[in-house]
């Protein structure tokens, strides 16, 4: 269980210490900027935002609050981590889309792209359809970790190849509810 140490705002998960990395204010400021950019680029279109559960739910909810145009939303649910700090290397579909994405402008919303495995998997699934356009938005990108060539159109923050929790990002399905992002201390 996490123990908050108020004097330093560090979080302990077992013997792992996490320290503040991105504050709630920094995250929200960047989301406002992304919302303005996307709203401007899609002002003559009706995009459908497709969140990748569970991690993207907080980012997507806050992003959609800053979108000033009409839009729709749906969700995929994938799993590649289980309860581990590193990806298993295999993606499993847990929930498919409900929306018809043919002839639609899609914006795939991820919490984090590290190896690119999940987003590559999603791109392969989407190829089975005929969307009008596909763009990718992620709150966090780990450029050093990418193993797949993926074009990411909207990036909140580029971060080093470190394990992070909070603001939708989990450790064994916990700590998603933190309003800031914490990084594993070395």
Structure notes:
The protein is of the alpha/beta class and 186 residues long. The protein has one domain (24-172): 3-Layer(aba) Sandwich (Rossmann fold). The protein is built from three helices and eleven strands; from the N terminus they run βββαβαβββαββββ. It has a six-stranded mixed β-sheet, with helices on both faces. Helix 3 (117-126) links the parallel strand 7 (105-113) and strand 8. Helix 1 (24-41) crosses helix 2. The longest helix is centred in the first third of the chain and has 18 residues, at 24-41. Mean pLDDT is 89; it is low at 1-7.
Task: Give me the secondary-structure topology.
Blueprint: E1 2-5, E2 10-13, E3 16-22, H1 24-41, E4 47-53, H2 57-65, E5 72-79, E6 92-95, E7 105-113, H3 117-126, E8 133-141, E9 154-158, E10 164-165, E11 181-184
Parallel strand pairs: 4-5, 4-7, 7-8, 8-9
Antiparallel strand pairs: 1-2, 2-3, 3-11, 5-6, 10-11
Helix pairs in contact: 1-2
- Helical segment count: 3
CATH topology: Rossmann fold
The CATH architecture would be 3-Layer(aba) Sandwich
Under the CATH scheme, which class? Alpha Beta
List low-pLDDT spans: 1-7
Tell me about the largest β-sheet. Answer: 6 strands, mixed
